[in-house]
Protein: Cytidyltransferase-related domain protein
Organism: Treponema saccharophilum DSM 2985
Amino acid sequence: MREKHKIGVIHGRFQGLHNGHLEYLLEGKKRCERLIIGITNYTGNTKDERISRIDTHRLDSTANPFTFFERLEMIRAALLGEGICESEFTIVPFPIETPDLLFNFVPKDAVFFMTIYDDWGRDKFKTLSDLGVNVEVMWERTPEQKPISGSLLRKTIAEGGNWENLVPSSVADYIKEHDLCGRIADGK
């Protein structure tokens, strides 16, 4: 069994939080005592030249329907639902598109956990490595090996499909309670 790191950092857009994200978060939490969860594209209107070269859908407004606060609440509910104490995690903005700002939100001496599925993941790995932080890749998978994506979740919601089994039950409750399906269906 590997020794736990004191502080770990994990990041993602979490648009919305699905079961694949939960797997990612729980694996990161297993590896550290305290997990800092960074939400990327936290203003919803990031214009990142690197992203646009690699993966343009991440910048589309329909790919970013949830606010920073809504995503924070979904992450919080999911982790609490898994029995993780709130004192063991913190949720912050994570401006990967402006790397020189990262250390305003996360400590440089933490271990940065990530997964890689595509060129955007490889680009983020390089960005973090170039900053001199300790990056630990938890797994690298092909896009076909990805169990679910935010795009699939949003598409399923927009089409009125059975989306609740794609997310933790606490997240389904949050989305329904705040009538967020309508926003996705309307493309806003």
Summary: Residues 50-55 have pLDDT under 50 and may be disordered. The first strand starts at residue 5 and ends at 12.
